[in-house]
Amino acid sequence: MVNSLTGRFVILTIIFVMLAEVLIFLPSVARFRLDYLQNRLELGQIASLSLLATDDDMVDPDLERELLANAEVLNIVLRREAMRLLVLSSPMPEPVAQTYDLREAGFFELIGDALMTMFRSEDRVIRVIGMPVKSGGTMIEASLYERPLRQAMIAYGFNILRLSLFISVLTALLLVIVVRFILVRPIKRVVQNMMRYRDNPEDARRIMEPKSRVSELRQAEETLADLQTQLTGSLRQKERLAGVGGAVSRISHDLRNILTTAHLLVDRFERSEDPTVKRTAPKLVSSLDRAINLCESTLAFGKAEEPAPKISRLLLAPVVADVIESDQLREIEGGVAFETDIPEDLQVHADGEQLYRVFSNLIRNARQAIEESRESGSIRVRASNGGDGCIILVSDTGPGLPKKAMEHLFQPFQGGVRRGGTGLGLAIAAELIKGHGGRLDLVRTSAEGTEFRIFLPVPDPAAA
């Protein structure tokens, strides 16, 4: 109960109400003491009227003791017409210990006197001075024992304490009832939904349906529903990808055999005397080699990650030239121009085959974007040494990336940059560069074109 939200809410409510009652108690008990003393002065003034009504200002001693006992005072002094008269009196058991003038007492002084009275143990005789009621004189004072006053104040304090506890418990119960409907029940509903969703997260019927009318809880329910929707979609996509992966493995096995046969046939083309065939056959053989290698890598893949790159030192310019020359053979309309600005002696530490795939994906995406715009354009590849690595910029003058592609640019099957694309090209390129310890970043994209930045670090000699 204590560790529950309801239990803690009850305890905190009682504590806060009691703190408020303590702040109210001090002025209240000071006011009670003031009223008590004022009442004794009024009773003393009424008792003095019996004496003032006689002709000789004398009363029977028994009547005097009875009047003082009823007023709960020891003596009464009334000042009238500039005369100070001892109206009623009885033998003083001890000297007056302290005098309190109620005519000039301030707020904090009354609180301090009340606290001192409550915590004082001895029974003292005190004198109280005040103003008579109904213009009965200019001043009235009375002497009385302090213990009855203290007992009355303590009894009053216990009454306030009992009332405060009752108010605290009642307030806490009422607040708990309200909070259970406003806060606790919606939270339990969210928890129950999470438990149901946990049992079968692929069931879209178990996704949270926001119903709360409290804005904060409504926002939490909407956020949870959005999270569950994304998770359910991701799980379904993973199932589809697992199925696609199995199919790709089977297709790659058969495709490898087909490509191997085609490779053997192309070997014969190299002996042809036709100049066009002689120029095209080596590129065709190279493409078939890469296709066969890709099939074999897919079959040996077995995991959702690329094989580790085989790092070696190689010249960058020939790799880029080979990619551009192969891409030009696929070009449809010939409206794309290629520019390179790569030093001939610039070397990088990379896997040549994987680096070829990276440039092939980037350049193919750029060419397709330019072709779809139905306008001529250019693709430019620049490279330079950055001290701790090589910086390569691949830019084009295409129409830029669509907004939808920007949200999931490097995510497979989500970051497609053209209609009908799978989004695998950039995802694979980013993963291959990451395997080299580098980064593939989008530098800019707009209606004037798009630019990607590749960073390939220099291997640490100690690590090597």
From TrEMBL:
The keyword ATP-binding applies. GO terms for molecular function: ATP binding; phosphorelay response regulator activity; phosphorelay sensor kinase activity; protein kinase activator activity. The chain crosses the membrane at residues 6-30, 160-183. Gene3D superfamilies: 1.10.287.130, Histidine kinase-like ATPase, C-terminal domain. Pfam families: HATPase_c (PF02518). It catalyses: ATP + protein L-histidine = ADP + protein N-phospho-L-histidine. Residues 250-460 form the Histidine kinase domain. One of its GO terms (biological process) is osmosensory signaling via phosphorelay pathway. It is an enzyme of class 2 (transferase). Its EC number is 2.7.13.3. Keywords: ATP-binding, Kinase, Membrane, Nucleotide-binding, Transferase, Transmembrane, Transmembrane helix, Two-component regulatory system. This is histidine kinase. It comes from Algicella marina. The lineage of its organism: Bacteria, Pseudomonadati, Pseudomonadota, Alphaproteobacteria, Rhodobacterales.
